[in-house]
Amino acid sequence: MTTSSHALLAVLQAHGIDRVFLVPGESYLGILDALYDFPGIDAVTCRHESGAGFMAVADGRLTGRPGVALVSRGPGATNASIAVHTAQQDAIPLILIVGQVPRADLRREAFQEIDYQRMYGAIAKWVFEATDPGQLAEAAFKAIRIATSGTPGPVVLVVPEDLQQQQVAQPRWIARAHASTKPGDATLRELLRLMEAAERPLIVAGGGFEVPGGREALCALAETWHIPVALSFRRHDLFSNLHPLYAGELGLANPKNQIDAFRESDLILALGTRFGDITSQEYSFPDLPRPSQTFVHACADDHMVGLHFAPDFGLVCNPVELARALTPAAGPPIPQARPAWARRLQDIREAFTAWPQRKAEDGIDFAQVVRAVRQQASEDAIVCVDAGTFAAPVYRHFGFVPPQRLMSPLSGTMGYGTPAAIASQLRFPGRQVICMVGDGGFMMTGNEMIAAVERKLPILFILANNASYASIRIQQELHYPGRTVGTSLFNPDFEKIARAFGMQAQRIVRPEEVAGAVAMGLAGGGPRFIEVKASLSVTLPERRS
Ligand SMILES: Cc1ncc(C[n+]2csc(CCOP(=O)(O)OP(=O)(O)O)c2C)c(N)n1
Predict the structure, then answer these.
(1) Smallest CA separation from ligand 1 atom 20, residue
(2) Which pLDDT tens digit goes with each residue over 173-185?
(3) CA 382 / ligand 1 centre spacing (Å)
(4) Contact predicate 492/447, CB 8 Å
(5) What percent of the residues of the chain are helix, what percent strand, and what percent coil, each to the nearest 5?
(6) pLDDT tens figures, 406-464
(7) What is the distance in A from the centroid of ligand 1 to the CA of 390?
(8) Alpha-carbon separation of residue 222 from 239, 299, 320, 334, 475 (angstroms)
(9) Closest atom, ligand 1, to C-alpha of 471
(10) Cα of 129 to ligand 1 centre, how many Å?
(11) What is the Cα–Cα distance from 321 to 184, expressed in whole angstroms?
(12) What residues have CB less than 8 Å from 350, skipping those under 6 apart?
């Protein structure tokens, strides 16, 4: 016999979960107490449930296992909801464990009670409120299965406080990996025939390749067939951005000539991607509902295959296995027109991603900082970015080369960057972790930075201080020129804040200081902080006079 909370944690641990992120609460004291007996599970204490949730989302992304966050009922659960939404949008496995009022008080509008089924119903893959202590181990098992299968995503386990410490049988729930799925031989032959014939094929690859061996399989497929690769929204780190076959990311700011060129493709292999609204340029590429190209859509989630675009081949399968099955050992014949096609897409991408040469009068052009980071980052650096216009050069110009990683929220949420950096460095203590964050986003979850000091994590935090919610200010200037409201920021002394946290900190105001500051910041030895007086004007649209 064991307690119900021990049973729950034992199932999580048996599935490789070795870290949880939490803000404690009286509603889950029983689970916390059981955690005391699991020294193999690192409990990371956070300062806000959004921080705990974001760390769990980042950890889930890096491990492929569910990230786990534990939060209290009511206020804790509502604070954590931003991470549930992010996990859903980003397709990241997440388990959020929420304490709950005792069963006797359920649905009586008790203190801090919420009906989580209703609250999380629209954003979680599964919400389960236990009514019996014997259910916890099974619920943990199902949570892992559901969070990691199909399109990965968030699940919420709700545990009333009175059933957390009851005696139950030892758990026997162990998930075995499912046999991998790939199309039958006849379909594979047909696909190979299409790939041999296509003059202007294009691979659009997505998060399905974010698994061990996925990047290698994608690269081998592209190189063997000499097919250009476009990556889905913010999946820059799946394929070398410097590779001649890299055609670019389908994101928020593609130039028209690039999308026009993509339209000229005669075969699209959409592999491991949901092909959602941003990747599809608001459902305008390819043509909807019937693409003009031969359209192959392969995704592990049957709900996603053909959801927006009617494919000629809709394949519910493991995209990595498919890529391997479509990569013959001997190089296949390549149509003559293909090298010129690949070269054309490469030229467009190179022109678009060339570093800008701008002159800023009111501070440092943050693109310069990103460039210095690019030049000095290690080959396996993990770059964590928050939401904001400061991050635009990261997406457009950085040029990620695996195993470098880009940790950035597909959901576009502010507040992700700092917690993601903590989780990344905890997961990979030997890798360089760099966090870039705006003054807006930093004030949302920057408090989590204290964990870097506590645990001596050598993260480099770079804050772009433009005294503005500039992303929104830009939109205001575009749509309501000269009428800005609510987007100017009155800021504290960030350098002093970082020092007060116990970090080495530096403020830079001149372009000449950038390279040296980044070098110092990457020197290691503990967390370091650079506040950049960032130009606002270079990011704003030109005023029409
Ligand atoms: C949690 C959250 N709230 C609001 C927004 C809307 N939003 C997107 S970017 C942005 C401004 C970001 O400001 P800052 O962090 O200073 O970066 P900047 O754009 O100035 O570079 C806002 C308010 C959001 N994406 N996420």
Answers:
(1) 470
(2) 887 777 788 899 9
(3) 22
(4) no
(5) 40, 20, 40
(6) 999 999 999 999 999 999 999 999 999 999 999 999 999 999 999 999 999 999 999 99
(7) 10
(8) 10, 18, 12, 12, 38
(9) 19
(10) 34
(11) 12
(12) none
Q: Residue 368: which of 486, 220, 517, 193 has the closest Cα?
A: 517
Task: Find the 430 Cα to ligand 1 centroid distance in Å.
Answer: 31
Separation in Å, CA 350 to CA 242, 243, 347, 399, 524: 9, 11, 5, 10, 33
Token pair listed for 7: 């049973």
Six-digit token pair at 541? 């649209």
CA atoms of 390 and 365, how far apart (whole Å): 9
- Which SS3 state, helix, strand or coil, does residue 496 take? helix
**Within 10 Å of residue 359's Cβ, how many Cβ atoms?**
9
| Integer Cα distance of 459 and 504 in angstroms | 11
Q: Which residues line ligand 1 (CB under 6 A)?
A: 387-390, 412-415, 438-441, 464, 466, 468-472
CA distance 267 to 412: 30
DSSP alpha helix (H) spans, 432-529: 439-445, 450-454, 470-479, 494-501, 514-521
Q: How confident is the model over 350-364, as a mean pLDDT?
A: 95
Asked if residue 543 has pLDDT above 70, the reply is no
Cα(412)–Cα(397) distance, rounded to whole angstroms?
Answer: 19
Is residue 410 classed exposed, middle or buried when 0-12, 13-18 and 19+ CB atoms within 10 A define those classes?
A: buried
Which atom, in ligand 1's list, is nearest to the CA of 414? 26
Ligand 1: atom nearest CA of 412 is 25
Q: Which residue's CA is minimally distant from atom 1 of ligand 1?
A: 414
CA of 475 from ligand 1 middle (Å) equals: 12
Q: How far is ligand 1, taken at its centre, from the CA of residue 388, in Å?
A: 5
- Cis amide bond preceding 458, omega within 30: no
Tell how far CA 497 is from the center of its chain. 27
Mutational test site, ligand 1, from 471, 532, 538, max ligand atoms within 8 Å of CB: 471
Question: CB within 8 A of 494, min separation 6: which ones?
Answer: 439, 442, 463, 465, 505, 507, 529, 531
